[in-house]
Amino acid sequence: MNAPDEKKTTHLTIRNVPLRLARTLKAESRRRGKSLNATAIDLLTAATGLHGAPLKRNGLEKLAGGWSAQEGRAFDNTLDEIRRVDPEIWK
Fold this sequence. Notes:
Order of helices and strands: HHH
Strand content: under 5%
Radius of gyration: 22 Å
């Protein structure tokens, strides 16, 4: 990330993109919740092995923190029950 041109950018135009690839890129950008441009940059950076390439994601980050406070408490309560040791079983 210390490269002198790290913050410089340029414009590129890519022509004759196969329809299947275009559809896949658009679907991936929707899945990531990013623009098509940001998704293409992320994928090209990772594919070329440039420093600072984004980590491979499994798509589950959208679910993180997605529970309401009530759902979170219910889950914690369930875990409390599961973690409780029954002394009768451990005799």
